[in-house]
């Protein structure tokens, strides 16, 4: 970026995003009728479609477009020794402080240094407790007895499932270093402080890829994956001036990391981590080899059967956090001149068409005279290739606004002229431009528009 933004640029606030998400069926509070469950959220009809599209785009980027990366779906419940070897039992903690006056709880690393030094609450000015460590793993029991021998954990990350299967994948798929293993899956963290909607939750999904490389080539591959992950967000159509790199300093580096960078996004609440790219060295495989007693060395058959423990370059992004980023990035409020009314505003989600929950909505101008039946036929034709919606309720302008708010890139209007000459009106969400095209050319025109899409704002 030529100049870094210091404040959020755009009309979105977390209150607006949260309200829109519930109103349009993106995200609901979990167990809302019982008062809600903190740190847990449910994804409604539009939300699950958006989440699935983000997931599929990432999976395609990592596996389909790379011959040297394969997929995995590891179990959530793993042997408890996995988490001892990984360091999670010992090191997976948050520093917490409480306010003795207002009883608020904070992560010590997320409050201003002057407040922490003075032990002063940033909310009410009351006295803060000393900092203490809190382990974030959910602990439960497996089997009939509930004692120390039956303790098991809900995984706090998906990466360890990849490491313990690394040798299985080499042997079953004949993989050669360098190669990667990708996984999307649920993870669980007992976050004491959850806020900013779905940014930090107790139950979430991760999109992780672990790339195994020869020691000595790790710095080169680390830089390569930084370039690739940055380019991915450009491909998604994200506002690139709302992204930046943040390198972990010595005090920030995790116990396993040789080097680490975060891609940060400028959310309405400020710069926050979106994805991490980490050089994990050979820490993970070395630890699992020590704790399991299994030989996890790689045998390089193309190089005199040399043996070594690969270094690992990790790319790790939260699926649900990426969804929040996409919502914030797409949200816009725009003043439009509609039939001479200068006070007309619209809320629009400018999703990339490949991510939009609904690609095309079909709208009959009237319910009668066969227009609804014709519109339904067109919808059925389009749904073979696109995610579609059908809406015949209310004035056509109001229906356009509803689709804008849901982020639908294209609307097809069927009117009386459609019956006469088999043409329809294709409307574009971002520009609100409308063009008349033959019905037979509709699907191909939409495909071309998606391929050529460039964000206006």
UniProtKB/TrEMBL annotation:
<feature type="binding site">
    <location>
        <begin position="273"/>
        <end position="274"/>
    </location>
    <ligand>
        <name>ATP</name>
    </ligand>
</feature>
<keyword id="KW-0547">Nucleotide-binding</keyword>
<dbReference type="Pfam" id="PF00587">
    <property type="entry name" value="tRNA-synt_2b"/>
</dbReference>
<feature type="domain" description="Aminoacyl-transfer RNA synthetases class-II family profile">
    <location>
        <begin position="15"/>
        <end position="353"/>
    </location>
</feature>
<dbReference type="InterPro" id="IPR033731">
    <property type="entry name" value="GlyRS-like_core"/>
</dbReference>
<dbReference type="GO" id="GO:1990742">
    <property type="term" value="C:microvesicle"/>
</dbReference>
<feature type="binding site">
    <location>
        <begin position="318"/>
        <end position="321"/>
    </location>
    <ligand>
        <name>ATP</name>
    </ligand>
</feature>
<comment type="function">
    <text>Catalyzes the attachment of glycine to tRNA(Gly).</text>
</comment>
<dbReference type="Pfam" id="PF03129">
    <property type="entry name" value="HGTP_anticodon"/>
</dbReference>
<dbReference type="InterPro" id="IPR002315">
    <property type="entry name" value="tRNA-synt_gly"/>
</dbReference>
<dbReference type="InterPro" id="IPR002314">
    <property type="entry name" value="aa-tRNA-synt_IIb"/>
</dbReference>
<dbReference type="InterPro" id="IPR006195">
    <property type="entry name" value="aa-tRNA-synth_II"/>
</dbReference>
<comment type="similarity">
    <text>Belongs to the class-II aminoacyl-tRNA synthetase family.</text>
</comment>
<dbReference type="GO" id="GO:0006426">
    <property type="term" value="P:glycyl-tRNA aminoacylation"/>
</dbReference>
<feature type="binding site">
    <location>
        <begin position="314"/>
        <end position="318"/>
    </location>
    <ligand>
        <name>substrate</name>
    </ligand>
</feature>
<keyword id="KW-0436">Ligase</keyword>
<dbReference type="GO" id="GO:0004820">
    <property type="term" value="F:glycine-tRNA ligase activity"/>
</dbReference>
<feature type="binding site">
    <location>
        <begin position="199"/>
        <end position="204"/>
    </location>
    <ligand>
        <name>ATP</name>
    </ligand>
</feature>
<dbReference type="InterPro" id="IPR004154">
    <property type="entry name" value="Anticodon-bd"/>
</dbReference>
<protein>
    <recommendedName>
        <fullName>Glycine--tRNA ligase</fullName>
        <ecNumber>6.1.1.14</ecNumber>
    </recommendedName>
</protein>
<dbReference type="GO" id="GO:0005737">
    <property type="term" value="C:cytoplasm"/>
</dbReference>
<feature type="binding site">
    <location>
        <begin position="189"/>
        <end position="191"/>
    </location>
    <ligand>
        <name>ATP</name>
    </ligand>
</feature>
<comment type="subunit">
    <text>Homodimer.</text>
</comment>
<dbReference type="InterPro" id="IPR036621">
    <property type="entry name" value="Anticodon-bd_dom_sf"/>
</dbReference>
<dbReference type="InterPro" id="IPR027031">
    <property type="entry name" value="Gly-tRNA_synthase/POLG2"/>
</dbReference>
<keyword id="KW-0963">Cytoplasm</keyword>
<dbReference type="GO" id="GO:0015966">
    <property type="term" value="P:diadenosine tetraphosphate biosynthetic process"/>
</dbReference>
<dbReference type="GO" id="GO:0005524">
    <property type="term" value="F:ATP binding"/>
</dbReference>
<dbReference type="GO" id="GO:0070062">
    <property type="term" value="C:extracellular exosome"/>
</dbReference>
<feature type="binding site">
    <location>
        <begin position="204"/>
        <end position="208"/>
    </location>
    <ligand>
        <name>substrate</name>
    </ligand>
</feature>
<feature type="binding site">
    <location>
        <position position="107"/>
    </location>
    <ligand>
        <name>substrate</name>
    </ligand>
</feature>
<keyword id="KW-0030">Aminoacyl-tRNA synthetase</keyword>
<feature type="binding site">
    <location>
        <position position="157"/>
    </location>
    <ligand>
        <name>substrate</name>
    </ligand>
</feature>
<dbReference type="GO" id="GO:0004081">
    <property type="term" value="F:bis(5'-nucleosyl)-tetraphosphatase (asymmetrical) activity"/>
</dbReference>
<keyword id="KW-0067">ATP-binding</keyword>
<keyword id="KW-0648">Protein biosynthesis</keyword>
<dbReference type="InterPro" id="IPR022961">
    <property type="entry name" value="Gly_tRNA_ligase_bac"/>
</dbReference>
<dbReference type="InterPro" id="IPR045864">
    <property type="entry name" value="aa-tRNA-synth_II/BPL/LPL"/>
</dbReference>
């Amino acid at each position: 970026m030529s100049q870094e933004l210091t404040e959020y640029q755009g009309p979105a606030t977390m209150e607006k995003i949260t309200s829109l998400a519930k109103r349009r069926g993106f995200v609901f509070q979990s167990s809302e009728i019982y008062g809600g469950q903190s740190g847990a959220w449910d994804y409604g009809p539009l939300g699950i479609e958006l989440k699935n599209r983000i997931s599929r785009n990432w999976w395609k980027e990592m596996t389909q477009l790379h011959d040297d990366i394969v997929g995995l779906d590891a179990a959530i419940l793993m042997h408890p020794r996995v988490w001892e070897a990984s360091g999670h039992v010992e090191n997976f903690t948050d520093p917490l402080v409480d306010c003795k006056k207002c009883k608020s709880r904070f992560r010590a690393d997320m409050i201003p240094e002057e407040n922490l030094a003075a032990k002063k609450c940033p909310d009410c000015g009351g006295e803060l407790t000393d900092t203490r460590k809190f382990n974030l793993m959910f602990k439960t029991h497996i089997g009939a007895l509930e004692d120390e021998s039956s303790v098991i954990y809900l995984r706090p990350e998906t990466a360890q499932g990849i490491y313990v299967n690394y040798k299985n994948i080499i042997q079953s798929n004949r993989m050669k270093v360098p190669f990667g293993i990708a996984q999307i899956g649920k993870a669980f963290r007992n976050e004491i402080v959850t806020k900013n909607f779905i940014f930090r939750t107790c139950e979430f999904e991760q999109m992780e890829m672990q790339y195994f490389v020869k020691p000595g080539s790790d710095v080169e591959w680390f830089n390569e994956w930084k370039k690739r992950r940055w380019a991915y967000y450009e491909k998604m159509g994200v506002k690139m001036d709302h992204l930046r790199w943040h390198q972990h300093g010595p005090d920030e580096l995790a116990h396993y990391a040789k080097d680490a960078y975060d891609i940060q996004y400028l959310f309405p609440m400020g710069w926050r981590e979106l994805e991490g790219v980490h050089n994990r060295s050979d820490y993970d495989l070395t630890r699992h080899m020590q704790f399991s007693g299994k030989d996890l060395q790689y045998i390089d058959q193309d190089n005199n059967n040399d043996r070594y423990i690969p270094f690992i370059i990790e790319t790790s992004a939260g699926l649900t956090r990426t969804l929040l980023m996409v919502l914030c990035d797409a949200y816009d409020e725009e003043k439009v001149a509609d039939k001479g009314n200068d006070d007309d505003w619209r809320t629009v989600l400018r999703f990339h068409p490949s991510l939009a929950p609904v690609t095309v909505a079909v709208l009959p101008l009237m319910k009668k005279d066969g227009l609804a039946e014709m519109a339904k036929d067109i919808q059925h034709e389009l749904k073979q290739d696109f995610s579609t919606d059908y809406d015949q309720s209310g004035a056509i302008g109001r229906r356009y606004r509803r689709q804008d708010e849901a982020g639908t890139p294209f609307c097809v209007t069927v009117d009386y002229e459609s019956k006469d000459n088999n043409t329809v009106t294709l409307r574009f969400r971002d520009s609100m431009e409308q063009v008349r095209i033959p019905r037979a050319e509709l699907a191909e025109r939409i495909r071309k528009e998606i391929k050529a899409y460039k964000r206006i704002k």
